[in-house]
Design a protein that fits this description.
alpha/beta; dopa decarboxylase, N-terminal domain; Aspartate Aminotransferase, domain 2; Aspartate Aminotransferase, domain 1; 16 helices; 12% strand; binds pyridoxal-5'-phosphate
């Protein structure tokens, strides 16, 4: 149980004064022997947590504020033993977590961590490098370039693509659209900005009505304005309609606006639909627009040759984002932005003040490829995951997840009172309850109650979306611990909840 650490204010003041005069001995890190012992215990804590994860409900049964009420209001003045802190991992952190690694976590796209990924995170924290420049992180820089190139090869992307690791797909897409803006001729936005310019036409970006909200955030951050993000309607299979895209581009050009980029989604968030990438690539080329592909979730499936025909056209993109932290078993965070012409990112972002100049020439300085200067050593966990599973191991796991999703989809199709509402190209199934004779609105309310009931039970966690205005339940398979028994359990729970509710 946690203590109240609040120190009396006088004590704080006098302690600060003492610190200023006491430079006699370096206080240093925690003692080496203590750290070593704690590291061994952390290894056990991690292994125990993962071994016991099934025993937790996927979402903790707590109310908002419950965790903060258990924490001391003020920070501890005196050092606490590492063992006591680690006791709180067991007593406070683990039980009050939403367990993304739980076999029943089938809600959002997975953040499917793995053992090798955990090892990579721990070791990255130990070396704790800030690889802004080659000089400040030589192995980090080169390993990032190399691991990204391994991933590129696994995905059968052309050799000219260079990978750059970011924290999230949101940031990767932001950088891609910044490069798109920079590439657009005659605008000089890097130097002159966008405000107060009568010579600058509105710049337009196109994506489908199913594209992720990160594209809206990129549009607003980069000053395109949400009004100039054209969300093109999708077809019956939730893919961007090419005819409507063509019309929108033509209308914008006729009105003096300047089309800058089109974003195709490979695996949309709601249904995992895939925009017609080949057609989008051709339009982008014809219109001299940047073509960005958001494959944050589904591009990982491209390591399996049988999924590549679904992705045709991705190789013609100017930039592609994929998140190994979603479906390639690398712990959060790790997003890879592949760019065909990396000089566009440098043109958009490189600024080298005196204090960041180094004597090496011909090296990659990762700070030149995005907004952030400092960066952590994310490539280590990616590299370790790729090595520990091998391409074959990763491929088998993705295939297994897709096979489980197909099995669940077949069950939905056969189950009276349930309806599947989208194709299942990967690991996600969208469905809803459709009691005969029930009108649309009560049906939506029923599905909302159904999801609440299913999630309250504990062993599984599903999410929802709206498609064409209708409430829909989503089940995603992508976790390393999920098995056929977990899918059967999900089916049982859904069936029982349906029976209770109508
Ligand atoms: N793009 C798609 C298709 C997504 O589904 C998501 C999140 O689920 C994102 C982008 C955003 O990912 P991130 O959390 O890495 O920014």
């Amino acid at each position: 149980m946690m203590r109240d650490h609040r120190p009396p204010p006088d004590e704080v003041r006098s302690s600060v004064a003492r610190t200023e005069t006491a430079a006699a001995a370096a206080p240093g890190d925690v003692p080496e022997a203590e750290l070593r012992r704690a590291l061994h215990r952390v290894a056990d804590e991690i292994a125990d947590y993962l071994a016991q994860i099934r025993q937790y409900p996927v979402i903790p049964k707590i109310t908002p504020g419950a965790v903060r009420r258990r924490l001391p209001e003020s920070p501890p003045l005196e050092p606490e033993p590492l063992d006591r802190i680690l006791d709180d991992f067991r007593g406070l952190i683990a039980p009050n977590t939403t367990h993304w690694g739980h076999p029943g976590f089938m809600a959002y796209f997975p953040a499917a961590g793995s053992g090798p990924g955990i090892l990579g995170e721990a070791l990255a924290a130990a070396v704790n490098v800030n690889a802004m420049l080659w000089r400040t992180g030589p192995v980090q820089t080169e390993l990032e370039e190399h691991a990204c190139d391994w991933l590129r090869q696994m995905l059968a992307l052309p050799a000219e693509f260079r990978g750059h690791i970011n924290d999230t797909a949101s940031v990767s897409s932001l950088l891609a659209l910044a490069a798109a803006r920079e590439r657009t001729g005659g605008l000089d936005i890097r130097r002159r900005g966008m405000a107060g310019r009568s010579d600058l036409p509105p710049l337009t970006v196109y994506c489908s009505d199913q594209a992720h909200s990160s594209i809206d955030k990129a549009a607003l951050t980069l000053g395109f304005g949400l009004e100039h993000l054209r969300r093109i309607d999708s077809d019956d299979a939730f893919r961007m309609r090419i005819d409507l895209l063509e019309q929108a581009i033509a209308a914008d050009k006729a009105a003096g606006r300047r089309p800058v980029a089109v974003v195709g989604t490979l695996g949309t968030t709601s249904t995992t639909s895939i925009d017609p990438l080949r057609e989008l690539a051709a339009i982008a080329r014809r219109e001299d627009m940047w073509f960005h592909v958001d494959g944050a979730y589904a591009l990982s499936a491209g390591i399996c040759p049988e999924f590549r025909p679904l992705m045709e056209g991705v190789e013609a993109a100017d930039s592609i984002v994929t998140n190994p932290h979603k479906w390639l078993f690398v712990p959060v965070d790790c997003s890879v932005l592949f760019v065909r012409d990396p000089s566009m990112l440098r043109r958009a972002f490189s600024i080298i003040p005196d204090y960041l100049q180094t004597p090496e020439t011909g090296v990659t300085n990762l700070m030149d490829y995005g907004v952030q200067l400092g960066r952590r050593f994310r490539s280590l966990k990616l590299w370790m995951v790729l090595r520990a599973f091998g391409v074959r191991g990763l491929l088998e796991r993705i295939r297994y997840h897709c096979a489980l999703a197909q099995r669940f989809a077949a069950w939905v199709d056969a189950e009276p009172g349930l309806e599947r509402v989208a194709p299942v190209p990967f690991g996600t199934v969208c469905f809803r309850a459709v009691p005969p004779g029930m009108a649309e609105e009560p049906q939506d309310q029923l599905n909302e109650r159904l999801l609440t009931e299913i999630n309250a039970a504990g062993p599984i966690f599903l999410s929802h979306t709206r498609l064409r205005g209708r409430y829909v339940i989503r089940l995603t398979v992508g976790n390393l611990r999920t098995t056929a028994e977990d899918i059967e359990q999900a089916q049982r729970l859904i069936r029982e909840s349906c029976q209770r509710l109508w």
